[in-house]
Specification:
This protein is α/β, with parallel strands linked by helices and 502 residues long. The chain is 39% helix and 15% strand. The relative contact order is 0.11. The chain is globular, with a radius of gyration of 23 Å. The protein has 2 domains: 222 residues, no CATH class; 250 residues, tm_1862 like domain (pyruvate-formate lyase- activating enzyme, Alpha-Beta Horseshoe), CATH 3.80.30.20. It has 19 helices and 18 strands. Helix 4 packs across helix 5. It starts with a strand and ends in a 16-residue tail after the last helix.
Amino acid sequence: MLLIHPPLAKACEPPAGLAQLAGALLAHGQPCTLLDANLEGQLFLLGQPLTATDRWSVRAAKNQAANLTALRSPGLYASPDRYRRAVADLDRLLWLSGKKRQLALSLANYQDQRLSPLKSADLLAAAAAPEENIFYPYFARRLAECLEASPPPAVGISLNYLSQALPAFALAGLLRKRYPGLPIVLGGGLVTSWLRSPTWQNPFRGLIDHLVAGPGEGPLLRLLGIEPGSQPARPSHAGLPLGDYLAPGLILPYAASSGCYWNRCLFCPEKAEQNPYRPVPPARVLADLAGLISETRPTLIHLLDNAISPALMRALAEQPPGVDWYGFARISPHLAEQEFCLALRASGCRLLKLGLESGDQQVLDAMDKGIDLALVEKAFACLEKAGIATYVYLLFGTPAETLPAARRTLDFVAGHQSAITFLNLAVFNMPIASPEAPLVQRTDFYEGDLSLYTDFIHPQGWSRKEIRRFLDQEFKRHPAIAPILRRDPLLFTSNHAPFFCR
């Protein structure tokens, strides 16, 4: 089977979903080929001739190879200014390549001014005219290389982000035109969200043969006539260009669970989609990591869980993997224990991503976050003393929040600025299937039959326009907060943040 990770997403680590699928197929004796068309497609565009003559573009083209080499070298990350310039120059080249096609391309996004990934009609239009997609020359060549010598029984496309949707459907359209009898399987995070939406009606019949929600190992094996075993297989990265990713050494992604062990936050799509929590036993995680580290020699482990469980953290502290690691964690009592945090740092924990969401206790309680600010303060102090960096996520505009509550969040963050290494600020989008959705007056948010979110009239009168004004004019300009925001790695954000923490 041919498994494809389509453009466009951040190309700093191998696609974990493909590796997981490959591990399951290989464990059952089924050969497969992995194609990271996201990484390869971006490198293809970066290598195209440049027609612009302005100084920035000429410099970016001249330094393209040097900047790619620098992004793959640790030395660049010791100089934030040099890093920013290298990333901006590479991003400039992608932007230029897309401009003439009415695309807004970056190292992290793909936006088409004519077609929307939220409209099934536009995705089908992209499939009907794949030759109009900017990646078409690359797609045509690589599919021929992968398929014509030894045709597989099916092709799987892993679609996780909206920024991948239009290229993924152009890819599917090309497959349908050139290889009409070849079954196409479409899965991944975005497809899972579509299929679990209460408004879902399949518009892709005739183009996509099989749509898969959730983990795809079982459905793929059953498609091949094989009943999957009870134990998950270790991921396989065989065939992926592990030395080509845009990071200073290999980042090894690994998911020790799917779903979330808390699964109660009202704002969270995991709850809205009713995704079950499926953990891999900690002993199995440690064994998998040991094998993968031996095979791939990574620089950093990226744990992809929605929240790393306390049980897995204890296991990592007791049996360190031998490579630094980072990932998402809930702010829970074990992170407020100094000894535990010191053990985590000794195990290689370089950075934890923490969903604080709000610095107002009433807002936290209303969203059923399950934390109190006194616990957060203790956890921040313990993590700071242990030397573990933090990437803190804040969410503004939830139904219970008001401007005074948002200002309390500002005060809380400013008061703990020394323990906050990086910040992510987001404005709340309400999932269509959120438990809160029936309780508010809703309006259309994104025009399109595939939209996963709905707009609503805020019960406190806290509109999106007012939220953005507060963030731009008050929050981001606060003298204790502005330096934190300036530290955020350009475009790659949390994916590169651990390399600025030692």
